[in-house]
């Protein structure tokens, strides 16, 4: 859904429960690239656009004949990008506006392509690879601007969001996550509606010395846009360095839900979810917009399931906190969020400070919710969440070397949370009401539901799992109705679209990302990958790397089922 | 027998160059056949393969050579027990696991081990090209404040002091570039002193601030003349706490290995001239060991 406001997919009525039957997928395409395939394909005006991890290729297919690549864009990049990227070389997708396709490259560029031909129209360097700054985010179009974020907090990149003119690529503005107010782009009435969130000067005052310059707060997740309020929303990520003793203070404005003006980018509100983060609960997850009745009044809402295991719902006009509930009651680093102050009430037992050994911290550093995009059913007023159920042990250590040199680190062990049972389930799917705070239903999954969910009007919710299933559940009860084993695990989210009267669901497969690090890089030490290797050691028994898109439809109908009687050839003849 | 005879001979003629000594000693212990008979009495030295200038698998490190001298002095065969990991793990993963018995270079004050009397004392240094026309004597030097790129190793006093003078943040990504941005959380990455000195030679860094013994041979080998200035040991951080820049170095053994410690101490004392020769040949600044007596070394037996 990149490029549009993130009202959750609420498409059509083609898919109804009771019609789920095993059917062959009408078509599929292997991207030719391995590593984690995040995000989703983009379908606009009968064309499907597919993106890949590094080297960030793009393919376009006419949905009339998806057996033929309409055009491809295979950019040349600085190979240094791979080495500098912190995590798997993923990319979260494309955006479309005004006859152009927008994409990011790992080596820090933003590119605009002609949507018809794939030719480059303009290309801007948004991030300097030489300072460890990369790009994995999907661009996001807001009116006449395309927005991109930043990556590389680990290497001291100070997070920023930038807007470029969609026609010319000219930079309109750039606002940082830390530092002086004028560099962060705070509106004069910033947080006037909620002064207790903090207002002036905190991008400096909540840091020691000039630590804010390497403070992180990169944003590589998802944006949302409200055309009526003329505001866009996103979350800034974790503070840097990772070792929290090096950055005393609240570290504002990392880990913050931002509400900014869509023209100037100036921030009307900022709500920091995890002050002085210790756990790496990067705050960049999906921002889902809905309008719901709160205390008898229709209220514009923003719902955001954070890594820290709390799902926040704010009034997206004012920034007021409406609710902040645990995604699962096993969250323990915070006892709860005080709605009056907006502050989490921390439990020191589950702190991951460098002088404290802790066990059974929930969520683990991966979070109970990662970068997947979830969905919303406005009739049921339910959000369908793809959840991780992983907790961790934490043991900091200090190794002296010599001549006063020492190394400080921590060993992490990750494992299924308390509800994982004897099978050690690592994931959940849940249906959540943001206003009542209740869960309509929840189901355990053997592996994390890393990529996100898709809800349809026919009472279905689709999602992919890390071991490679695409599943459909009854969105009223959570009952499993259909599943299919894909060639590789899923870390992206499904989409749905209609073409020629047929309703399709499409999803990427291709395991990778943080959970796949052991598999992708062939790591054996369970504490490697910050514990991910141990947590997902089993994953290798169920899936290996792959990369592609699989498209499903009811009864397996598609562009080729009708042509079965022809010679099947789907070529554009030269004489055309 | 051959070993003993040779040692007697060298005592008569005075100190010999280490290379000759090493060439004689090594064959006596390195062969597989010898190792079995040597095992019972041999001194097992914990050693890293990739820890120059201290140690490498070819024994070109100055601590490799000192270990050989000391073992010969002890009249015991010696074997290096090579770690697969970086040297920083030697105490935790090798010495404490009883896979070997001696770590060659540790701070005398290291609380994890029983340390010999220090066999050298040195300090952190500023390293810069002589043709830069700089005058950098200590952390207050004005010329230092004008610089931008500092080749330092994280977790050292240089990092602490760089923060004190407000230069750490701006230097952060350059520092990470020195290991090609490979340093991930929880993952110790060795910074190569040869590379850091080369950054100064090549003009990519304005200055390097390193532990003297770590950098000395590379400064000495440089075809471009470099200045190496010992930093005085009177530095404090923002909260007033002292940031030590001079350190005594010792051999370390497990805390209950008192007998071995005594043997090492005796050997270090008798072999002092050879040991000092090896250290001097490196080119490191050597500070008087007498001053160590003034700084209370509580762990000394």
What would you say this structure looks like, in words?
The complex is a heterodimer of chains A (576) and B (301). The relative contact order of chain A is 0.13. By secondary structure, chain A is mainly β. Chain A is built from five helices and 39 strands. Helix content of chain A is 4%, strand content 36%. Chain A has a domain at 1-26 and 285-565: Quinoprotein alcohol dehydrogenase-like superfamily (Methanol Dehydrogenase, Chain A). With 301 residues, chain B is an alpha/beta fold. Chain B folds into two domains: 2-120 and 249-294, D-Maltodextrin-Binding Protein, domain 2; 123-230, Periplasmic binding protein-like II (D-Maltodextrin-Binding Protein, domain 2, 3-Layer(aba) Sandwich), CATH 3.40.190. Chain B contains 13 helices and eleven strands. In chain B, the strands form two sheets. In chain B, strands 1, 4, 5, 6, 7, 8, 9, 10 and 11 form a nine-stranded mixed sheet that branches. In chain B, strands 2-3 form a two-stranded antiparallel sheet. Chain B is globular and about 60 Å long. Residues 1-38 and 292-301 of chain B have low confidence and may be disordered. The interface between A and B is large, with 33 and 42 residues.
Q: Structural class of the secondary elements of chain A?
A: mainly beta
Number of distinct helices of chain A: 5
> CATH homologous superfamily of the domain at 1-26 and 285-565 in chain A?
Quinoprotein alcohol dehydrogenase-like superfamily
Characterize the overall form of chain B: globular
H/E series of chain B, N to C? HHHEEEHEHEEEHEHHHEHEEHHH
Number of domains of chain B: 2
Percentage beta strand of chain B: 15-25%
Instruction: Name the CATH architecture of the domain at 1-26 and 285-565 in chain A.
Output: 8 Propeller
Strand content of chain A: 35-45%
Number of strands of chain B: 11
Rg measurement of chain A, Å:
23 Å
Major β-sheet strand ordering of chain A: 1-39-38-37
Specify the biggest β-sheet of chain B: 9 strands, mixed
Task: Give the overall form of chain A.
Answer: globular
Which bin fits the share of residues in helices of chain B? 40-55%
Low-confidence stretches of chain B: 1-38, 292-301
CATH class of the largest domain in chain B: Alpha Beta
